[in-house]
Prior knowledge:
elongated, 593 residues, 30 strands, seven-stranded mixed β-sheet, Collagenase (Catalytic Domain), alpha/beta
Amino acid sequence: MGISYNDYEPTERKEREVEETTSSGEELVLFFRSETQAQGFPKRDKRDKIKINGVEQFKPLEDLKYAQSFGFDYYRPDLYGSDTKIYEGGVATGHKLEDNFEIDNQLSLELKNKKGKSKFIDNEFTLVNSSSSTNYKYFIPNLLVIKGKTITFYAKYLCPDNTGVSAKITLSDATGIDNYTQDVSFNKSEEIKPITITTSASVNIAIATILSITIEKEGVTTVIGKCNILPNKQYEPNFIFIDVIYNSTIASSTDYSKFVKNLNEKAFNQAGINIVKSKNQYTLHLKPNDALRVTDSKEPIVNSNIVSNSINATNQITNFDNVLEIASYKFYEGIALKLMNEIEVELKKIKVKDKSKKDYPLIKTTESLEEIIKTKDGTNDEKQKRYNRLINNIIGFIKESKINYLIGFMCSNLESVDDSIALGYLNTRGFIVSKSGTSDFMTCAHEIGHNFNLGHTFLKAGQVNDLQIPMTETLENIMDYLSGNPPPRKSFMAFQWFKMQKSLDRYAISDKDIDTTSTGILNGFNCLKDNTSNYLGSLNLYLKFFTYEIIRSIFLNIEDSNKITLLHSDKDENDALNIISEIIKNTIKELQS
């Protein structure tokens, strides 16, 4: 799998001023995403063993009550073992999973009854007499809720003396929160009660908000539990779905609205991400001989690694990497050829004058732009490669620019030869799914997670992953490899929320960022207004070559074919340049709509 990592920084742990008296250690409240998590889920079934990757182990039990439509992360060292380090490109970043949580040093998982005897909270969140752990820190859980959403999570009360209590809930800042549970009563220890929050549909939670649960004792307000409600800036990546049909002319009109709804409500809303289905949907007919265009003069015009090399006689994919690469290329090539055709149509409307002031069309009605590009000297192969290079330059711009769109290649008549039903690359725009995989949205969420720069959560030879804990030990993480059919993938961790958000921050460029104020093609094509990022230089080179090659070719073609000398200025070139620019802007609009 191709891997390209962005730098990752976890949220900084903030030191907060404690405004209330904190617990004396006689009562404590822990927060959970569901009633079952409050009982220790996810966990393994000690009565049922299965083989995972050839190794016999206890089967993971599933938290069936977690709605999955909001993000909740509680630090669970019992799941992750001793190695909680976060990695980038195979190198430890210096950050750990626990760095994504605030710690309240006044709260503790060690409680004392009225006689001063200690009780401890175990991995199933019950009180026990002794503990093998020496870490009783209270890690404040993280909660992330998208705008305009009502969610219910749960509070579990723990008291060594098993006495009840009436409590109040307060927020350090209610901005972005319309309603929330304000009073809750517990009758006994280990009782679980629901807490409801409704976020504003119009106002974001701009700063992290501490939800505190407090009790009154002899006129003193005491904090006995906390939850961290994170900012909920919403990310809305635009997804283009492409029906991939192999070696057939059949049509396809699959509606992916429900698929997107499931992706959001069962996975990405957890991270403040709401995938938007593009209003444009495409069908890509892959042919057995489809391959990549090659521009290197040492290579043949078309790459010999044709797509049929990766699909067997029964329409099963044997090499997802190659099929994804070629499908992606053919999609972009289709956009590039459509763009070239639109440029040709518009440039045929422009006329220029020779020295006698006679008008000549930039492109004759009987000519094509492709033919003009190929009129230069050289062998047929060299001419074709020149045209291929032109097409690949505009593909390079569309593919590499940070425009807000991602692509799902949904196979209509291709299955997998094994259980690898989908593939997505790290930090790229595209994933591909076999026919049967299109109904398995959690596996697709895993592959889209790769697109959003998430690696796997486990240690495996030959892979560069985000965590290096044993495979399946998360029991339910969307980026793990889990057992079951479908796997019981449920959630992302907080560090994964932040990493996906950072990846999506790069898709910020729209058609409004296209600058058409260039003064002459020889001064370059200043496509993007912000030239502060290094990647913009290469993008401008893509467009400079593309536009320069077209404009130079058509002007030379007029003079050579008509044996004349044109009387033209930068204005003529800029007229053509602005047409090309406007068509590129419209292409960007289409991709983002």
